[in-house]
């Protein structure tokens, strides 16, 4: 592999956000090596990436908690110069039920990864963090929309693992820089981006690539997609007694392609500016309630989707809306796609691929993609 921009290792690269970031990296001229244990994803995502951009990432079925297997990938590919780290368990509700597994996989796996990076002198890492590290930002005055300097205070185990990994990465990067500087050696090459993002949604506009959660999805829009296709009877809305405009929780939804572009922008920033450790919010800056999202998606589908209000979930907070000004300014990045785009793209994906990656996409979608690519 010998791409113009170098080689990036993407952990969790067959997952939802990981696969879209792999696509964007390849389109931008990077070579990509994906490691994933396929616990909540499909290797078919690799085929879809290739179908869209005519480039294929290398793929290894590796669990990041298996440090020896991960180390073998680094040893085999000395050309790796950066890592984008997605691999993690990611369901807020589930994290409260099996906390030890979340700490083992998310924190333990990240430590394995950082140890491999140090051994193989791979010095840039972009970390897929989360807005859940902020917890309930309404407990502070003037912190909605949420800026990066908002004090951290996760309210659930998933958020705690993300905050912990941020700290581990920060300590490791700063230790490497300090050690090298004291020895009179170059140290600026050690850098990390902590990307705190809000609620990813949407799919590829071609309709052949999207989110394909194994089992029951935990996020609002994939659940709505299953209601729209008839796979689920109705959506459960967790609480309508929040102090919001309609009683439901407020979230900042961001198209997955915009989010992938944010990872690319962060990686390029690390390589160019060598800032040490930086945290950026990736969000639209617009908050939407659960009811507003149901209405927006129902409009695209063409009918009202049934829902039922149940009690609040443990660990949920009122408002997670980003203040993305820092990323807008420093990364020259901002969301370009609308909520309507995200809903339309998601519906195109779930309507045409009700079995996700366990089926071939419709021939007419593939023909349209090939025509667009000039084939």
Automatic annotation (TrEMBL):
<keyword id="KW-0119">Carbohydrate metabolism</keyword>
<comment type="function">
    <text>Mutarotase converts alpha-aldose to the beta-anomer. It is active on D-glucose, L-arabinose, D-xylose, D-galactose, maltose and lactose.</text>
</comment>
<comment type="similarity">
    <text>In the N-terminal section; belongs to the NAD(P)-dependent epimerase/dehydratase family.</text>
</comment>
<dbReference type="InterPro" id="IPR001509">
    <property type="entry name" value="Epimerase_deHydtase"/>
</dbReference>
<dbReference type="Pfam" id="PF01370">
    <property type="entry name" value="Epimerase"/>
</dbReference>
<dbReference type="GO" id="GO:0003978">
    <property type="term" value="F:UDP-glucose 4-epimerase activity"/>
</dbReference>
<comment type="similarity">
    <text>Belongs to the NAD(P)-dependent epimerase/dehydratase family.</text>
</comment>
<comment type="pathway">
    <text>Carbohydrate metabolism; galactose metabolism.</text>
</comment>
<dbReference type="InterPro" id="IPR036291">
    <property type="entry name" value="NAD(P)-bd_dom_sf"/>
</dbReference>
<protein>
    <recommendedName>
        <fullName>UDP-glucose 4-epimerase</fullName>
        <ecNumber>5.1.3.2</ecNumber>
    </recommendedName>
</protein>
<dbReference type="GO" id="GO:0006012">
    <property type="term" value="P:galactose metabolic process"/>
</dbReference>
<comment type="pathway">
    <text>Carbohydrate metabolism; hexose metabolism.</text>
</comment>
<keyword id="KW-0413">Isomerase</keyword>
<dbReference type="GO" id="GO:0005829">
    <property type="term" value="C:cytosol"/>
</dbReference>
<dbReference type="InterPro" id="IPR005886">
    <property type="entry name" value="UDP_G4E"/>
</dbReference>
<keyword id="KW-0299">Galactose metabolism</keyword>
<feature type="domain" description="NAD-dependent epimerase/dehydratase">
    <location>
        <begin position="8"/>
        <end position="283"/>
    </location>
</feature>
<keyword id="KW-0520">NAD</keyword>
<comment type="subunit">
    <text>Homodimer.</text>
</comment>
